[in-house]
Amino acid sequence: MEAKTVEAPIIASRPSLIKPSTAEQKPLSALIVGGLLRVTPELARRIILECGYERQRSVRPLHASALSMQMRRKEWTPGTQIHFARMTADGWLRLIDGQHRLHAVVEANTAVEFQVLVSGCKTEAEVARLYRRHDRLSVQRTIDDMLKAEGIPAKHEITNFLARGTFKAALIIASEFAFTGRMAKADPYTYRSDEARLRLCEPWWSIVELFADAIQEGEHRIRKIVSSGGPMAVALVTLRDQEAKADAFWRGLANNDGLLKNDPRATYIRFLSFGKGRLGAFASAKAASIAWNAFYAGKKLDYIRMVDTPIRIAGTAMA
């Protein structure tokens, strides 16, 4: 019988991950060990170039930019974990979790402290298994979880869905109703950062309390719909700029006590009652603005016809 031979692993095509680039630099094998590590932009760039995992997902530049702004603004939590796989046969290191954070360090041009986890792997299959397990069973905290942690519903004596609606509405207003998809590209930090979004909300909480008072007697389903991001953005702007008239609009809409059929408030309620309240943020804000504009002008409104034109809100800065 011939003895079976085991082929040696092919490593000629691998980058020289554990060799220093210059005499002054320590090898990455000496730097990348378990524990806390201060990662400078230079070290982050070196890890990206030398420790890339070939099956890693593509970098999402907008996400990396949002993280970099957090780091620049000192909002990043030091000590978050990055994860490497180390092949036990030859010490080959690969970054399997943390590439966006390291790209953000480079973009922010600031040093950040990370907790480093290094897992020894004997085979490529073990590396792949470690990689694919990241973020697969995690449960992301919701907007409600974040707002509750900040104590916002209790502080302003409002419901969770009003707090959540404000969190969404403030971003819509900040985009000048051009809508958040554009902001996601133009300003990924504001779009993605809780800290930035909470700062946007700050001027609106007193107005939210007025809105909560205006709709408190309304049917629960209608109150939830008008407290979603799109309609609530319209409500906040109208209450800020036309408080008395806006109170009559939203209070009368919520109470729906003897409204005439062609009253814009009654027409808007019918619109919502036919399930149209489940429309996306732009369409729902558009419908609310149409009803408000008719009410503000003292006009009757028999139906709400949706047209793809910019949102204008009569009597406000968005007129």
List keywords for this structure.
single chain, 319 residues, alpha+beta, Conserved hypothetical protein from pyrococcus furiosus pfu- 392566-001, ParB domain, 2 domains, four-stranded mixed β-sheet, 17 helices, 51% helix
Number of domains: 2
The strands making up the biggest β-sheet line up spatially as 1-4-2-3
> Which structural class do you get from the secondary structure elements?
alpha+beta
Shape: elongated
Question: First CA to last CA: what distance?
Answer: 90 Å
Low-confidence stretches: 1-23
- Calculate the mean pLDDT score and round it: 88
The run of helices and strands is: HEHHEEHEHHHHHHHHHHHHH
Share of residues in strands: 5-15%
Rounded radius of gyration (Å): 27 Å
Number of strands: 4
| SS summary, helix count | 17
**Helical content class:** 40-55%
Main sheet properties: 4 strands, mixed
What would you note in describing this structure?
- With 319 residues, the protein is an alpha+beta fold.
- It has two domains: 28-133, Conserved hypothetical protein from pyrococcus furiosus pfu- 392566-001, ParB domain, CATH 3.90.1530; 143-296, no CATH class.
- It is built from 17 helices and four strands.
- The chain has helices spanning 28-31, 41-50, 61-72, 99-108, 124-133, 143-150, 152-156, 160-174, 180-186, 188-192, 194-201, 205-215, 220-226, 229-241, 243-255, 264-273, 281-296, and strands at residues 35-39, 80-87, 93-97, 112-121.
- Strands 1-4-2-3 form a four-stranded mixed β-sheet.
- It is elongated.
- Residues 1-23 have low confidence and may be disordered.
